[in-house]
Specification:
2 copies of one chain form a homodimer. By secondary structure, the first copy, chain A, is α+β, with helices and mostly antiparallel strands. Chain A has helices at residues 55-67, 107-110, 130-145, 161-172, 178-187, 213-219, and strands spanning 11-21, 26-32, 42-43, 45-48, 73-80, 91-99, 116-119, 159-160, 191-198, 206-211. Chain A has 6 helices and 10 strands, in the order E-E-E-E-H-E-E-H-E-H-E-H-H-E-E-H. In chain A, the strands form 2 sheets. In chain A, strands 1, 2, 3, 4, 5, 6 and 7 form a 7-stranded mixed sheet that branches. In chain A, strands 8-10-9 form a 3-stranded antiparallel sheet. Chain A binds a DNA duplex through helix 5.
Amino acid sequence: MHKYSKQTRLLLAVDCIILGFDGETLKILLIKRDFQPEKGNWSLMGGFVQPEESIDQAANRNLKQLTGLQGVYLEQLHTFGATKRDPIERTVSVTYFALIDINKYQTQLSQDYHAEWFPLKRTPKLIFDQQEMVEAARKQIRYKAAMHPILFELLPTKFTIPQLQTLYESVFNTAIDKRNFSKRVLATGLLIKLADKDKAGSKRGAFYYQLNMQNYYAKFQAIMNFIPNPDTL
Amino acid sequence: MHKYSKQTRLLLAVDCIILGFDGETLKILLIKRDFQPEKGNWSLMGGFVQPEESIDQAANRNLKQLTGLQGVYLEQLHTFGATKRDPIERTVSVTYFALIDINKYQTQLSQDYHAEWFPLKRTPKLIFDQQEMVEAARKQIRYKAAMHPILFELLPTKFTIPQLQTLYESVFNTAIDKRNFSKRVLATGLLIKLADKDKAGSKRGAFYYQLNMQNYYAKFQAIMNFIPNPDTL
DNA sequence: GCAAAAGTGTTAAATTTACACCCATGA
DNA sequence: TCATGGGTGTAAATTTAACACTTTTGC
């Protein structure tokens, strides 16, 4: 017995929803599609799964191709399998969402793809059912970040508490009291205070912190309340 | 342009992790696989995705084939895509997990598959990477049930609070104070008290409740604390 | 010296936990 | 009558929410 001979085989693709944070706004990295159909339109980075790679590998490969980054936060999101989602030929797409430090993103690598960052809230029209994919990612990042410390993946190694707060406020589209926020965050034991300050944001400067990686990995799966009233998920 | 001509096509399957509750234990429905490879071994219900059906439809079809049930809680879980997970031929599998009222499950339908319920905690050895799939489902049901009222899907239309509590205790493998539990559950506004009692569990009998469907759908996405200390997820 | 952002502490309110007794009934 | 599971309330502890002033420093 060598094959499941009577079964139909399908195209399988991965699509990556790549999110970054520029200090103000949560952004998504899109490319200009360079082949038909929908050539020239904005699209997620993605491509077909190759015969000798797993789907996780395919997602990582695509992410690296576009951003030059490896080892970043990448999580399988959902698989889209409507029969007509690709008008050319039936293609099932496994979506992944990636959180990257936007500063590490290397422009030159992406020149080939004409990639651009867009505010997640003002994403241009996307091809096929990709709008739906982005919507799923938006929900998932909120859902997960309300309970797990994933948003640190969007920041550089050194970051300040005001930066972190802006990030949370941007993801949840809400204002958070800074006194309560810093208490809450510091109480997790996830942060290590550094000696130097970031003077970019203010004259006085804000202390840098970095993640306590030990605690970070240990507590990653634990449920933490980072958001006051996480009802609007 | 008619096809993505240079790409390789793959087999795509769905596998269903079907969970039920018999009043004591959380159980999983497995079948005896009736074709090679691994013929005669325990397996999840599943099958190949057909060309004219979506993957959601494929999952629903499989679920109906085995249980006779339609319209039950069915949620896409994860897609497994390692290259060698099926030794015969590369097959990517999209897993779904289903929660059903075990009483509605129709035995005669499943005779063809030699289906059997097993305690989720004592699942027999499964084929391929299905052990991993079941593990993912176990995690997901806890994760989701800690915050969303999905466990009602496992109960009949009429159920008692002690039954509900046993279910939660069984899923989370923990003892819950019955006073606090009933307060918590009743506070959600999800339950309607009925006039009659279930006399099966005790001499005194316990009042039946049913879901307030209006509130159930409205609050389904909201985050609720059903479990005292949801740390062990 | 002043504008602009950083940093910090207390009090009230709400939520969560712990805990024990009476009730109804079939055997 | 008694054994079994059903049903309920209160007080303490914890957690969360609300809120305002001082510090630093570049201009």
